[in-house]
Amino acid sequence: MQPTIRPLFLALSAAAVMTAAPAAFAENVRVAMIETMSGAFAPIGANQLHSYQLISEMANKQKWAGNHTLEFVPFDNKGSPQESLTQLKAAIDQGFRFIAQGNSSAVAMALIDAINKHNERNPGKEVVFFNHSAIDPDLTNSKCSFWHFRFDANSDMKMEALTTEMAKNKDIKKVYIIGQNYSHGHQVTRAAKEMLKRKRPDVQIVGDDLHPIAQVKDFAPYVAKIKASGADSVITGNWGADLALLIKAAKDADLKANFYTYYGSTSGVPTAMGAAGADRVKYVGLWNVNNENYDGKDIVENFKKKYKDDFYVMQTFSVVEMLSQAIKKSKSTDPVKVAFAMEGMKTKSLNGDIEMRATDHQMLQPLYIATWVKTNNKDVRFDQENTGYGWKTDVKVPAYIASQPTSCQMKRPAKR
Q: What's the CATH number where 127 sits?
């Protein structure tokens, strides 16, 4: 009888272990951050990596994803779409199933196309892409993908909010537009012209320049053109060194125009502005540390203490928050199940109520418009880059005002 009892006992023991395993199962979910970690835009890539690391450490301690932990690992794409594809392959070969990227819509376009092809050819080994800051509207319209989730507002949403506020200022008569010569820069130019014409047809567009990305070392010739045009306002989607150098050149030339930016709060720009940018430079973005309730101030203080840098990429918090919730909701770390769980998800982030729109995977959220001013320990307690200047909230724009329709026709995989 022993030969019969022993196999039965082993089978029952194995079944018990398998039944108990899910409750004890804990996975380290790794996310490959394919970003610019060298070259002119490296400071922004480093800031984003540190932001993900700080927030994921907090999430792991507080068990946002239950027993699972999150880890963000950098892959240097050198700012190149082609190098990004090389790094994507390396990440997939190393077993990464989640990707994060944001600096450059051209890179994001290349990644979406490659991930779509990979997932179609490799069922069971799918990869999901979290986009923290590539904001070309096409990414959630004509190029939309089930595998791509955008956590930033797209450039049309930001321009809608920005031009709504600009339209109220009757002192604005002449606007100059300048941007980087790639998809994002083209979209900013188009949206600025269309929306100003609709809201303030009396405003003149007195200049429109596109320059090579990350190649201009001296913006003095561009600033001379702006000055000669008589522009009282400048709209720019520039980011990184291209914005810092543009602001520096404007300061050196004593250009009196006001700057309406998307990325005035990013690494290097505050130092370039200093006192000269006070009351002249604005940005439209997802969040301002000097918000109405100082939501996120603990993160800002901890980030400064740990990295000697400023926390400003708020969407890293939203990525970690939603990824954690999707893992708990789906009771899985499988990318397909996580993606379906994330669709339509509503939660709170540092900027308030947010929603991942199911139709196109575009995040809907409030936006902030803020002005660079001297800190006052009242409504502007936090400065940036130890300049003594920070961002004063002008207005918090509700999500419905900036929200844009989508033309996305998404193809979804079968649910598992």
A: 3.40.50.2300
